[in-house]
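Because discrete structure vocabularies remain unfamiliar, it helps to consider an illustrative case, giving the amino acid sequence and backbone structure tokens:
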Amino acid sequence: MSGERTFTFFTYSSVSKSDKPRWFDDGIGNEFFDSEELTRQAIIELLAELARDAENPLQPMRLEKIETRPITKESLLALLNEGVGAIVERHEIVATIEGGR
């Protein structure tokens, strides 16, 4: 149906060498934002907080853009049952942000 809406959101994740799928359930969850700028600010604040508490070097963070599949009753049900990955149509790494000391 052409009337079904898709949405664009932004999120972040740490850069890792994990071979787990991007949307696996790590128990921490994901935080999503309406704009790239809000996401970038959240990353900067998170890295600043981690820098104060961390003894080890900080991992860079990826700023990511996702576009959803058309939102339907079925896609919402998949979201509830399978998690975020069920509604992600496209995923793009927009930037990698390094943490400072």
Summary: Residues 36-53 form the longest helix (18 residues).
